[in-house]
Amino acid sequence: MAKTNNDPIAGSASFRARSRILELLGNQLIGSDQLAIFELVKNSYDADASLVHVKLLDLDTDERRIIVLDDGEGMDLETILNVWLQPGHDLRYRQRSAGQRTPLFNRLPLGEKGVGRFAVHKLGEHIDLVTRRKDGSEYTVSIDWKEILKKDFLDQISVPVLESKEPILFGGRNHGTQISISRLRQTKWTRGDVRRVDRLLTALNSPFDRPEKSHPLEFQVMLEAPSREDWLADIPDADELIQSAPWHFAFSLVDGRFSWQYEFRPPSRSGIAGRILQEKDADLLLPSTPGSRKRVVAHKDDLDGIGPISGQFAAPSPVAGVICHHTIITPCAPGASGLLLK
Are 239 and 325 in contact (CB under 8 A)? Predict the structure, then answer.
């Protein structure tokens, strides 16, 4: 029954989030420890990092740790207090909605929900975060999730942020963020677990766009497992897979004109002839009505707001999967590149 103006108010209260919501969200939003590490690396991508080191340390001991270290823009005190310590903050969402790109690599943020920081809770009970902006102070935040969960409500928790005028980890003009997670919840790491982490992280490394192998990548993730190097030793190198791949496809869409090239490179010992098919500055074809032989061509208006697009695909074998990469450049941000996929 609807309330009338004569009904007395029995009471009122504000919503208060209980501390255990951190635990619930960490477990429900992030499906596995491997995905949690992936989420932390995505944060590094959004922070304009070019290099991320992921270290799985002492996996065979009770002192096992996970460290994620990047050379991104780092955080100042205001960002720590008003973004990082506020789960669900909409900073990345607003940046994506406004088309705001990062200053160094012109990236659109991957994250938008503000929940990536829950990944640290998924992985372990203790976290040490060290971060520094260029020419700024170095800040350290230590969080013991076990102690935090002893409090009933989030607003009862105070997290100290320590400032070092003389940086210890990021000395000189270095900057970035390091997250160290200990007292890991997953006490047994298998070979499959570590290799799944490797597959997820190398998906962010583009094997393309390098004139030579020594050329630096725009974004590179390096995984180390010092006590278990043998678990990663036999994973094929992406460059080797591409070179040996028999099927290659490259394309570009510029000002409404579509160009593509398909190349078949059979092994020299197979006795099969290779071939190349290509077309330049062609019309972009759209799906036609079933049964119709009419070629449906994209109109220029269909491509408004879509900048130059280029991509490459390399298929090593029918069972090895496809290595692919795409770069998206929008008219409002010349030179910008999208997420690199492999």
Answer: no
CA gyration radius for the chain? Answer: 25
For 4-57, how does the pLDDT look when each residue is reduced to its tens digit (9 = 90+)? Answer: 667 888 888 888 888 888 777 777 778 889 989 998 999 999 999 999 999 999
**Residue 329 one-letter amino acid:** I
H helices of 47-171, in order, are 77-79, 91-97, 118-123, 145-148
Report DSSP state, residue 33.
H
Which residue blocks in the chain are alpha helix, DSSP H? 20-29, 33-46, 77-79, 91-97, 118-123, 145-148, 191-202, 230-233, 238-244
What's the one-letter identity of residue 150?
A: K
**What letter represents residue 278's amino acid?**
Q
pTM (2 d.p.): 0.76
Per-residue pLDDT tens over the stretch 166-217: 999 999 999 999 999 999 999 999 999 999 999 899 888 777 655 454 445 5
Given a contact cutoff of 8 angstroms between Cβ atoms, the answer to whether 231 and 195 are in contact is yes
- Please name the residues in contact with 86: beta carbons below 8 A apart, sequence gap of 6 or more: 114
Residue 68, burial from CB neighbour count under 10 angstroms (0-12, 13-18, 19+): buried
Beta strands in 27-155 (DSSP E): 51-57, 65-70, 124-132, 138-144
Distance CA 22, CA 35 (A): 17
Supply 13's token pair.
């209260």
How far CA 80 is from CA of 94, 239, 297, 300, in Å, comes to: 18, 39, 50, 45
